[in-house]
């Protein structure tokens, strides 16, 4: 179950990242990250599900399909368009912060 979930989440993440990159290319270099939340959460779900199901081939595929495209895109964009790569990294960092903040609030509510 987790192995195919990781592949599905990774595909959603890759599609969202591709849509953002195509949108940036069509806007003639104006960086605009619209789907940062979508690809960040989808990639996190893909990594987590892939890590849980890492013994299956589908789990390994989903795990690596979740983090490799984002990493390669950011590395390439650092060389080509650093402003867009910074926006993508800020978007990812912002979503990770919101997730961590939400978890802290939930734990605080449960403990208090």
Give a verbal description of the structure.
The chain has 112 residues and is an all-alpha fold. Helices cover 86% and strands 0% of the residues. It has helices spanning 2-26, 36-52, 57-80, 82-111.
Task: Give me a quick take on this structure.
The protein is an all-alpha fold and 112 residues long. It has helices spanning 2-26, 36-52, 57-80, 82-111. The chain is built from four helices and no strands.
| Average pLDDT score | 83
Termini gap: 35 Å
> Mind summarizing the main beta sheet?
none
Overall number of strands: 0
| Helical stretch tally | 4
Silhouette: flat
Spatial extent as radius of gyration: 15 Å
- Which runs of at least 5 residues are low in confidence (pLDDT < 50)? none
Give the H and E element order. Answer: HHHH
Class by SSE composition: mainly alpha
Report the β-strand fraction as a percent range: under 5%
Give me the oligomer status. Answer: single chain
Q: Helicity range of the residues?
A: over 70%
Can you lay out the helices and strands and say which pair or pack?
Blueprint: H1 2-26, H2 36-52, H3 57-80, H4 82-111
Short key terms for the protein model shown above:
112 residues, mainly alpha, 4 helices, flat
């Amino acid at each position: 179950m987790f192995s195919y979930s990781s592949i599905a989440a990774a595909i959603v993440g890759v599609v969202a990242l591709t849509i953002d990159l195509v949108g940036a290319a069509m806007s003639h270099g104006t960086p605009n990250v619209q789907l940062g939340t979508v690809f960040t959460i989808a990639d996190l779900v893909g990594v987590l599900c892939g890590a849980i199901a890492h013994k299956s081939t589908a789990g390994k595929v989903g795990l690596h399909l979740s983090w490799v495209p984002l990493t390669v895109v950011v590395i390439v964009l650092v060389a080509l368009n650093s402003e867009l790569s910074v926006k993508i990294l800020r978007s990812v960092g912002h979503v990770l912060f919101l997730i961590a903040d939400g978890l802290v609030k939930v734990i605080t509510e449960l403990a208090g």
